[in-house]
Amino acid sequence: MAPLPQACSGSEFSEPDTGEPGDAAPERRESVIGPAGHGQRLDKWLVQLVPEFSRSYLQTLVEGGHVRVDGVPSSTSSRKLRAGQLLQVELVPTAQSLAFTPQAMPLAIVHEDEHILVVDKPAGLVVHPAAGNWSGTLLNGLLAHHRGAALLPRAGIVHRLDKDTSGLMVVAKSLEAMTSLVRAIANREVRRVYLALCHGEPTWVHQVIEAPIGRDPISRVRMAVVPGGKPARTDVECLARSKAVSALKCRLHTGRTHQIRVHLSHLGLPLVADAIYGGTPALGMARQALHAVELGLIHPMSGAAMAWRSPLPADMGAAWARVAPDPSTIVAAGPVDVAPQSRPGPRRVAGGSKPR
User: Fold this and answer.
1) What H or E segment, with its residue span, contains residue 29?
2) Where are the alpha helices (DSSP H) in 5-88?
């Protein structure tokens, strides 16, 4: 596997330096255990035989059956060696070391030009490689879709959707476009609107949630509204309500990890089927009921106002129909403004406190 250009390997979300080989054809090494190795543990001798790689990587080789003693795979790092034994090691690349490789996959592309690409991401697709998902991600698909992706940090990804959130994402195809899009998102100049189904019945029609988000101090897999977290704002409109499930329209002004999920859970309105933040399955939804329905922006190179809309996928569409009107009547056809919304008199939740 040829290494990626430096532009793709020098960013915050770049391929980690794991101390592992990445060549497609694995290297093999062998050694006859001499008197000095008699009685030594296998893992200690491996460090001497393959000193340039990390102990954790060598441990994965043992566990994967890639270390043989006298031709027999050894799965125990602590076993003692004997003089005269033949030790053989196959330096296979790990899934993590192959994470940033092109993988052809179908992409639901709704717009593409020389500088940007807009994709309608299905639920279940991971956007960026990470622990537990080192392959089959949108980034892998982008690297296969166009050669220029390998020259960009994160293959041009400028914002993300959670694995089980569906809907619209914009991706840069040139460095100039990426720089401009990152700046526009930071300046809150990109319009991102979501439809959501939540448990409970809001007591308001419009709500502006301004509550800081950071890592949950109790559970590291969650985010939470915490003092000292990063500023976060979500505008929420209740479209239909019931005691069981209500339909919401949410607009992001910032893009913190799990922002809508965290803010709604903070209000006591967790998303349907969002187990991490207190939601339970309902109305046939087995994944969090969140869909990025609108995306509007100023094209980073031409300056043209552009907008796209995505229909609800089948699972959420069926659930939505039991709660709220047809979303096509809520998200009407026509231009989407990319300026901040200005609705009169919405209630606010500020400073991390819950509404009364």
Assistant:
1) strand 27-32
2) 6-9, 42-49, 55-63
Residues 6+ apart with CB under 8 A from 52: 19
Q: Are 287 and 164 within 8 A, CB to CB?
A: yes
- For residue 66, the SS3 value is coil
Residue 148 tokens read as: 């220029």
pLDDT for 60-87, tens place per residue? 889 889 999 999 999 888 999 999 999 9
CB 233 within 8 A of CB 218: no
Virtual torsion, Cα 264, 134, 52, 32, nearest 10 deg:
130
pLDDT for residue 338: 53
Tell me the C-alpha distance between 170 and 189, whole Å.
13
Amino acid at 15: E
Catalytic residue, from 113, 120, 162, 164: name it.
162
The whole-number pLDDT of residue 356 equals 37
DSSP 8-state code for residue 222 = -
Helix-strand-coil split of the chain, %, nearest 5 = 20, 25, 50
Dist CA 60 CA 65 (whole Å): 9
- Give the predicted TM-score (pTM) of the model: 0.74
- Burial pattern 194-232, b for ≥16 Cβ within 10 A else e, equals bbbbbbbebeeebbbbbbbbbebeeeeebbbbbeebeeb
Contact criterion met (CB below 8 Å) for 1 and 98: yes
d(CA 62, CA 5): 31
Question: In whole angstroms, what is the distance from residue 1 CA to residue 21 CA?
Answer: 10
Average confidence score pLDDT of the chain:
85
Does the annotation mark 162 as catalytic?
Answer: yes
Beta-bridged to residue 349, according to DSSP, are 209
Greatest Cα pair distance in the chain: 83
Contact status, residue 268 vs residue 275, Cβ threshold 8 Å:
no
